[in-house]
Amino acid sequence: MTVTDEQADWFGTSFARLAAAVETVVLGKRHVIELALATMVSEGHLLLEDFPGTGKTSLARALSRVIDGESNRIQFTPDLLPSDVTGLKIYDQKTGEFVFHHGPIFANIVLADEINRASPKTQSALLEVMEEGKVTVEGDTRPVGTPFMVIATQNPIEQAGTYRLPEAQLDRFMLKTSLGYPDHASTVRILQGTASTEVVLEPVLDRQAIVTMIDLARGVHVNPLIYDYIARIIEATRMAAQVRMGASVRGARALAKVSRTWALAHGRNYVTPDDVKLLASPVLAHRLILDPEAEFDGVTAEAVIGRILLDTAPPVTNEA
Fold first, then answer.
1. Are the C-beta atoms of 268 and 319 separated by less than 8 Å?
2. For the whole prediction, is pTM greater than 0.70?
3. Domain ranges of the chain
4. Architecture of domain 1-193+203-219
5. Interval 164-185: pLDDT, tens
6. How far is the C-alpha of 118 from the C-alpha of 124, rounded, in Å?
7. In Å, what is the CA distance from 64 to each residue of 16, 53, 288, 300?
């Protein structure tokens, strides 16, 4: 399906309306909001590594409200069980049958708060649903619906009593970013009461419109040279001297997918190298495992990606 100019205009306008509505709650974070929306429309999941009190829960709730969806929050703790996430079957004495009770994962936007505080067994309960959008309990598989996005958070400072996310789970997050603290002007507006997390948001689009946006994003044109550019970036992450394990094929697909959405969100029905450059770090950095000596020397995955982008020549085409 080829995306027409009219469809691209509608998508860009709708995307901007969604972002503007969410920004009335999460002040001064337009870029992060757009990244979150692009992740949702790209059928991906978002990892927020941030300090407490920066608006992570407000972002998840605002996203669900503007699409007229349902949101759930799961507080991950060491005693959380997989069934507390996915749901379980309970015996009904009246009917004599086991009845499935849905867990909080059955929602459009799921906030997995402090995900690294749960045991690896509980974290693994998210692997299937994040990859395939469905949950299997005792042999029965149930879809969670569309749109569906997990927004997981972890505290970068307090590491006591936490479990490091397995690489297989990190790889299932399309993007990793952070909200950070609001700027001075936004902080003043919050203190003055002109903005509040209690703002009542009205739906901007319904869920069917989001499904339409998802379908349109799949039809954005990607020049073969752009695919080649993405592949060269991925290969460079595997050959970088400071990297022990580079980005996966899933990472390459995620970068191509979210680049389509990002292009369409900005009124274009084709992807440019600048789209890829802008999204490379939030999509790929968390997938890299650095050499211990490089980490000790203060090298970051973001710096590695930045160097790779400087060393990898972008294509020059009429549609790129």
1. no
2. yes
3. 1-193+203-219, 221-320
4. 3-Layer(aba) Sandwich (3.40)
5. 777 878 889 999 998 888 888 8
6. 10
7. 16, 19, 31, 33
